[in-house]
Amino acid sequence: MNKDTILAEYYVEPARVPVVDFQLLNSSDDAEQHAAVDQLDAAFRECGFVYICNHAIEPERVDQAFGWSRRFFAQSSETKELITHPPSGDIDDNRGWAKTGQGHTVQMVFDADEAEAFRQNNPDCKETLELGNPFSDKVPPNKWIPEHLLPGFRSFVESWWTDCAALSHCLYRSLGKALQIRDSDHFSHMHSENDCHMTWNFYPSMPLNGFHSPEAKRLNEHTDFGTLTLVFQDAVGGLEVHDGHRFRPIVPIPGAIVVNVGDMLERQSNGRWKSALHRVVAPAQLMRPRSAQVQDGHGHGSIEVIDRYSLVFFGVPNPDEMIETAPGCEAPGRWKPNMNGDWGTLSARQWIQKRLAVEY
C-alpha cells in the first residue's frame, strides 16, 4: 500500500460546524435576526459548536493578541516563573503561568488518586497563562510580569479582556432569544459581575511521532466548565470535537471565532444544547498511521509539528448563581447534562471548584 493510499484511508472529514453571522444575530431586521438565532440554536443542539463571523473584534486586534501571546511565551522560564501558577487546584489560585506538565485535563474525574494516575499517563503538552477579571476587586488579582520586562503587555491584555467580555454579553442576549426567554437579557444578568476566566495557551513544537502514542495529546479530551467559550485559534489547527462517533477537526476559518457550549449552559438548557467533548492534537493534515511516517536516515520520525497558540475566554456566571434550568427549558433535551449527579444543585463557583480541583 503506498503512502497516498494510507493517507486517504486515514482522512477524517472535518466537523460540520455551522457559520453564523454576528451582525445578523444583532440585525435590526427581525426576519434576519430570527433566522440567525435559529442557526445558533440548531448548531448548539446538534454539535455544541459554532463559528461566529463578522464579529465586533477587528482582525487587527486579533493579530495583536496573538503577537502578544507569542511574546509572552517566548520569555525566559526565569521571567515567567515570576508569576508562576500555584501547584493547587484551588479556584482562587487559578492565576499566572503554568509550565508544561503542571496542569492536566481530565473529564469528569473527581477522585484524586484516579486523577493523578491519569495525569501520569496522559500529560497535556502545553503552557498556559491564566487570568481573571482585571477590573474586579471581588476576585483574586492577576499576576503580571514586571512592566519593564514586557512593556505594554498588561495594558493590552486588560483591553483584550474588555473586548471579549463585551462580545460575550452580545452572545448571551442571543442565547435568551434562542430559548425564547421573556427577558432576553436573562443570561447577561447572571454574568453581570464578569467573573469569567481567560486562558492563553501555547502548545510547543514536538516530533509528530510523539502524537502516535495513544496517551499523547496537546490537550486531553474534555468539556468546558462554564457557559459559553470563545476560542480564537491560529492557523495551525488541531482542535477536534467528538460527534458521537469519532473526533473530527474544527478547521480554522480566518476571521471567525469558535464558540462552544459549556457544562453550565448544557445544564441550564436542560440538555437542549450540548457541552461537547473536544481536544487538541496534531493538525489533521499531518496525522498519519505509523507505517506512513517519514523516516530520517536513522529510522526516526523526522516531521515536527510547529508551535500552536490559542486565546480562550470562558464565560462563567456570577459565583453564587445557582445553575438550574432556565425558564422555558423544563422539557428535557436530547443530551444528559454533565452537571447531573448525586451532588445536588451547585453554584457556579462550586462547579468550577469541583472540576478544577483535580487539574493541578
UniProtKB/TrEMBL annotation:
The keyword Metal-binding applies. Residues 192-317 form the Fe2OG dioxygenase domain. It comes from the Eukaryota. Gene3D superfamilies: B-lactam Antibiotic, Isopenicillin N Synthase, Chain. Pfam families: 2OG-FeII_Oxy, DIOX_N. The keyword DNA damage does not apply. This is Putative 2-oxoglutarate/Fe(II)-dependent dioxygenase. It comes from Tolypocladium ophioglossoides (strain CBS 100239) (Snaketongue truffleclub).
